Amino acid sequence: MKKIGFLSFGHWNSNPAYQTRTAADTLLQSIDLAVAAEEIGIDGAYFRVHHFAQQLASPFPLLSAIGAKTSKIEIGTGVIDMRYENPLYMVEDAGSADLISGGRLQLGISRGSPEQVIDGWSYFGYEPEKGETDADMGRKKALEFLDKLSGEGFAEPNPYPMFPNPPGLLRVEPHSEGLRERIWWGAASNATAIWAAENGMHLQSSTLKYDENGKPFHVQQAEQIRLYKEAWKKAGHDREARVSVSRSIFAIVNEQDRYYFGGQGKAADSFGYIEQDKRAIFGKSYAAEPDKLIAELAQDEAIQEADTVLLTIPNTLGVDYNVHVLSSIVEHVAPALGWR
Q: Are 201 and 239 contacting, i.e. CB atoms less than 8 angstroms apart?
């Protein structure tokens, strides 16, 4: 059995072919899609965070709204760029969203990737300290976020407060018990996957990673996951590690599917540079009739290693079509692979 979720980048544009022409369209349709996904048995609704782009950016209002309108589905991100975040304010936002959802938040965070503008985090008021890189800054903020999620008091109380204080040092509120154990790290390398395990975070591995040995993408990703699991075991955590992988998977079951995705199943991985000095490998997309899709996915080593598969969706095509995309996987593909 595997958990199956969807991952939306939340694009919008005035393109006449889009069902999401405004930010309001994307936000409201994201809520509707999460509700519909829960009804058809999808396990998770996850959203990407990108700043300075016509895509979803501020996740907590959206996650809170979804939490208030659903009851079972996991709600998460994949991923929040920590370079842009105030860790304490984020603890407050995350705690509120988790309490509204009844403890269903699964937050994916990361040190960040190339963005739409140069040093975008600087416009949010953040700069690396002397000797730090922006990646160092992102990881440091992540550790502070994790520390403050623990609920331990750290702030000296005012002896003359507006309201009575509990005894001892104070923490930020609201605190959501258990949220610290539901934080995921988006890792693009083997080393950061190991670091995530050492720090007690679950692992999110997307459709790209740094090319570390020239092997096929799914093999490199499977190796990354195994290294993560070994590091988790070595760290001695008293809970089970979780691992998600993202994939673009489309079951072609009608002519509309064939029109949209009939030519998009890539036969091979591809390579590129997401940073000037680091070569990345990008996993192929899967688009085929269910029988062929089942055979191809059965050979994907990384999917075999993961407990959760996040299906990247074409959110611009609207709620109804995306429900169809997800339903096709649940009905025609997942049972044969043992995901259901």
A: no
Q: Tell me the per-residue pLDDT of 253-300, one tens digit each, with 9 for 90 and over.
A: 999 999 999 877 556 788 777 777 788 888 889 999 999 999 999 999
What does the alpha-carbon distance between residue 333 and residue 184 come to, in Å, rounded to a whole number?
27
The DSSP code sequence of 269-305 is: -EEEEEETTEEEEEPPPEEE-HHHHHHHHTT-HHHHH
Average pLDDT over residues 22-50: 98
Q: Are 128 and 136 in contact (CB under 8 A)?
A: yes
Calculated CA dihedral for residues 109, 246, 28, 56, nearest 10 degrees: 40
Residue 16 in 3-state DSSP?
A: coil
* Residue 214, number of CB atoms within 10 A of its CB: 10
Long-range contacts of 34-38 (CB under 8 A, 24+ apart): 34/66, 34/69, 34/70, 34/73, 34/75, 35/66, 35/69, 35/70, 36/319, 36/323, 37/6, 37/73, 37/323, 37/326, 38/70, 38/71, 38/72, 38/73
Instruction: Give the pLDDT of residue 265.
Output: 58
**Burial of residue 24 (number of CB atoms within 10 Å: 0-12, 13-18, 19+):** exposed
* Cβ atoms 49, 83 nearer than 8 A: no
Distant-in-sequence contacts of 155-161, Cβ < 8 A, 24+ apart: none
pLDDT value of residue 92: 98
Place of tokens 């739409």: 116
CB-based contacts of 331, cutoff 8 Å, min separation 6 = none
∠ CA 232-237-238, rounded to 5°: 135
pLDDT band at residue 82 using 50, 70 and 90 as cut-offs: very high
Q: Which of 255, 225, 256, 257 is nearest to 242 (CA)?
A: 225
pLDDT of residue 315 exceeding 90, the answer is yes
pLDDT at 200: 98
Residue 56 pLDDT exceeds 80: yes
| Torsion angle (degrees, nearest 10) of CA 142, 146, 152, 155 | 10
Amino acid, single-letter form, for residue 7: L
At 86, list the tokens: 């105030």
